[in-house]
Amino acid sequence: MQKTLLTKLSIIVGLCIVFSIGLTMISDIIYERQYYAESVIKEITQQHVNPQEVINPFIAIPTTVTPACQSNASDTPNIKSKCESSYSKIETIFASQTQAAQDLKVNTDTYKRGIYSATSYDGQLTFDQSYTFAETLENLDQIGTTIDNDTDKTQLAKTITHWNKVKLIIPVSDLRGVATLPTVTINQKTIAANYPQIPMIENLTYVEVDIPKDILEQLSNPTSPHNKDSFIVTGSVDADLNKSEVNSQLSNPKDNQALHIVIDLPLAGISNLTTIPTGQNFTLSMHSDWQTPNFIGKALPNTKSITAAGFDASWQNQYLTVANNQYLSQCLSAPNHQCTVISESMLNTDSHSYNPDSFEASRGLTADSAAVAGSNQSVLLNSFGVSFASPNDVYLQTERAMKYALLLMLVSFGTFFLFEVLKSSRIHPIQYLLVGCALFVFYVLLLPLAEQIAFWQAYMVAASACVGLIGWYSYYVFGGLKRAVIFTTTLAGLYAAFFGILSTEDLNLLLGAIFCFVILACVMVMTRKLDWYKVT
Fold first, then answer.
1. Theoretical Cys-Cys bridge with 250: which of 69, 141, 206, 445, CB 3.0 to 4.6 Å?
2. Handedness of CA 99, 105, 110, 113 (dihedral sign)
3. Around Cβ 186, how many Cβ atoms within 10 Å?
């Protein structure tokens, strides 16, 4: 008798092992389909527009620096002075205050390839900025200053500030998403934006705006009567002169001069939108009609509200903003553009390689170095934003459903076995095999159905088909309607319970553990008076 029981249990265990191998094959199919879906979305981004990353607009000032010649030589007049070659770099002026607002509409039907689609968005980005120049121009005056310890003299490099080429820079990672050029208002004066003919900043995609000449004249106030569009400093001054005296020789900017700039930027993209904060007092507010946002980046929103109509979120992180100011200004001021700004969207699309060691090295850039040895540096700025995650990720949900597949088969086989033990039913191993195949087909049906319709609908159709088939078959296996109804109801309850567990993302582990405990308790209660030595 015990030999028969062990044989039956061995058959059930063997069937579970066989079906586990089959479930592994289905898992491979899920990964394959998921990879194919991701490749289709990647193809869509290559043909249309990528996820977008926007840097808070800033003002760029091109300069040319000729380092001061070095000489050791009061005693050796025949020794030639060591003179380094001139180099170009970009000085930056960040906004003293920025209020950024993003109003986005999200759609899953814009870009489709068969059954696959990419989540796209389009909307309006508004930057309301204020710029103050007194401190920045004072810093510009000190560019190129070095101290000769032997002569106690301050040697000034020759610096040409090209005021006629000053631009407002509006960086966007993929300009294909800018269908129309942004509207820019400077001190209540509308200025046309344009794409750069000859980029001032290499390896950075952006739209630029020319600062009006009348505003530049007020800001720069150049002292050189020979060059109206450039600011030239050369020569030497005593090291013990006051800074105010040096500044008065260099320029005389108006301390109270400020710019008020408003930028209305239409933007479209796919999947993600991130923003890089710069300047001072940066705040970002975002509104969208998407109900399932996934907040990404180096900072979460300070406040957020998610409803059935969409979400609202706002960010403000002074630490990340100040860090970006340092990294970006150091990178752009690297001589001869030997530094590259790497965007997160570029990394995600594998269009650029990125070396973390290079990023760390970029922190050591100095504004006055005449040359940078070695290859170009790179810097990755801090960003935050949102990913428009799909609420119906069929591959993730199907994969989660697969985790309960073996438990479902064990419970089903166990129920069959209990009927055989408690009700003295005779069930052949082939009948176990056929019921197991029907349970296995549920997962074969679930994935292709979920790719065509909503996941809950696919789950309901596949579960109903399998429960109906097994219920009809159990009527003939048990030889009676009552037992067939009990088994079918039990199986339908299992599918319903598993779907409930899958639907509660935050509690699925807890509910799964409780479910296992309840199943074990039911089996123990039902078999508490059973004499296993008498089971045949």
1. 141
2. positive
3. 20
Contact in structure between 67 and 144 (CB atoms under 8 Å): yes
Residue 522, token pair as written in the block: 């039911």
**Higher-pLDDT residue of 375, 211:** 211
Instruction: Give the residue from 366, 396, 429 showing the smallest Cα distance to 505.
Output: 396
The residues pairing with 273 across neighbouring beta strands, listed in sequence order, are 52, 386
Q: Are strands 183-186 and 189-194 parallel, antiparallel or unpaired?
A: antiparallel
The C-alpha angle with vertex 351 and arms to 38 and 364, in degrees rounded to 5, equals 130
Sign of CA dihedral 420, 425, 427, 431: negative
Mean pLDDT of all residues belonging to the chain: 77
Express each pLDDT in 442-483 by its tens digit. Answer: 988 988 898 888 888 899 999 999 999 988 988 888 877 888
Instruction: Give every CB contact of residue 9 below 8 A, 6+ residues apart in sequence.
Output: 417
Could you report the per-residue pLDDT of 267-304, keeping only the tens digit for each? 999 989 999 999 989 999 999 999 889 999 889 999 99
Q: What does DSSP say about strands 377-380 and 339-342: parallel, antiparallel, or unpaired?
A: parallel
DSSP state of 306: E
Residues 6 or more apart whose CB falls under 8 angstroms from that of 361 comprise: 377
Strand 97-113, strand 282-288: pairing: parallel
* Residue 317, token pair as written in the block: 């992180």
Q: Check residue 276 and give its pLDDT.
A: 94
Residue with tokens 């340092």: 326
Q: What single-letter amino acid sits at 285?
A: S
Query: Which residues lie across from 238 on neighbouring strands?
Result: 153
Angular region, 108: left φ>0, alpha ψ -120 to 50, beta rest? alpha
Strand partners, 400: none
pLDDT greater than 80 at residue 345 = no
Distance CA 434, CA 412 (A): 12
Alpha-carbon gap, residue 71 to 83, rounded angstroms: 9
The alpha carbon dihedral of 479, 483, 485, 488 has a sign of negative
Distance CA(237)–CA(241), nearest Å, equals: 7
Rg of the chain (C-alpha set): 35
- Long-range CB contacts for residues 21-27, cutoff 8 Å, separation at least 24: 22/440, 23/402, 23/405, 23/406, 23/440, 23/443, 26/402, 26/443, 26/444, 26/447, 27/399, 27/402
- Per the structure block, which two tokens stand in for 313? 């979120």
pLDDT in tens, 440-449: 889 889 888 9
**Quick one: 286 exposed, middle or buried, by C-beta within 10 A (0-12, 13-18, 19+)?**
buried
Q: With beta carbons less than 8 A apart as the criterion, state whether 277 and 102 touch.
A: no
Q: What is the pTM of this model?
A: 0.72
